[in-house]
Amino acid sequence: MDKGVFRAKMDSIDDRLWAELNAIRPQSPEHFSIFNNLIVMMTDMGERRLERLLLLDGSLYPQMWSLIYLGGFLSLFGLFFTSTGQAKVQFISDFMLICMIVFTIYLIYELDSPFSGNLHIDPKAFNMVYDKMMHLGAQVPK
Fold this sequence. Notes:
Layout: H1 8-23, H2 29-56, H3 62-78, H4 87-112, H5 123-135
């Protein structure tokens, strides 16, 4: 996922972890409590991974993209009905509005897919957060 693509290798690692977890047979109530915590953590890990995988392709529905493009088109269409009476001023104001619409659509597209594209979150960011948490004294579950 660090390159913005799905890797099947992680699925095999995930399957092996679940197989190891399924092989555990708790012997006492204390072990059963630890076993339950492991199941909760593994389930949580899977849910977080699924959320990241879903974010690879973006999360806006096609209907939302249609509304965004329609709004941009209608704004541009509205430029034909405005007139300042001065060609130079009209050109500058139209150009600024067109640039703003294009920039806004581009920004929506980039922010919709945070793990790919020009504006993306590097895996180093997760490592940096982890290091800062450890520096502040966070406890790693054992």
